[in-house]
Amino acid sequence: MQNYYKFKPLLKTLIWGTESWQISGVPGNETPTVSDGSPVQTLNNLVKELKDRLVGKANYERFGDEFPLLIKFIDAHQNLSIQVHPTDEIAHRHGKPRGKTEMWYVMDSAPDAMLYNGLKQQITPEEYKSMVEDDTICDALAQYNVKEGDCFFIPAGRIHAIGAGCYLAEIQQTSDVTYRIYDYGRRDKDGNLRELHTKEAAESIDYRVLPDYRQAYTPKKNEGQTLVECPYFNTAVYDLNEPMQIDYSELDSFVILIGLKGEGRLNIDGEEVSFGKGETILLPAYINNVRAEGTVKFLETFVG
Asked: Percent of the chain at pLDDT above 70?
């Protein structure tokens, strides 16, 4: 069995920019492994073959042969639509397999880059529908200017949108269900207004207002800093300029490492591999120890 897996990203060009699906088990959009002499496999086939040895016993009982996370890099040249994702419960009512909770970590940004995350004022479902109709829904949203290192958690139900000039890593449930609320009157390649999902979104929105939607953490060198802990994933950031040993021997889960900046090397239970900006590595649940060396910054995420 291998100590790690790399995958060939799926590159998608969209009306607002590009997405690179780094690790995906979404049906029809499965990422294939990068061959090192071994047969090329999709992520889903890898889960079916290795089962709990890949994802962990509790995760395999919970998710079966479906890999639970989708990892993307998003490069926004224009504003994405204002949107919301349903909870698992609401998604099931709409005939979808699951909802979507996600998070963003800003890797780079233009000087004027911004995004929306959450409501900044209390509105009712009726006011929401009226604001969508008269193009003022953005007035109700919390807006953030962003820079490298900013982190945002987007639980299902929270209205959000990535703005032009943002380049970020996205970690989410394996789901492609999105309800588009507002799209600036943009048209698709055939000249048609893009479809909105006003009714479905209204059912999905969490109308609570919070004082701040940015994830607060203190950046530190050479130790893991927790960013998000939720039922769907746990994520930390590491910013290293000294060697560090990471112990996974008590963890019952796969681990995904997402390279944000710099270059380094990983020793994974005795097997070495280069690792740096723009790379994503999947560690099976049976891996016990990783030693990271070099000047490298990365995210670590797992389920458990």
From this structure: 99
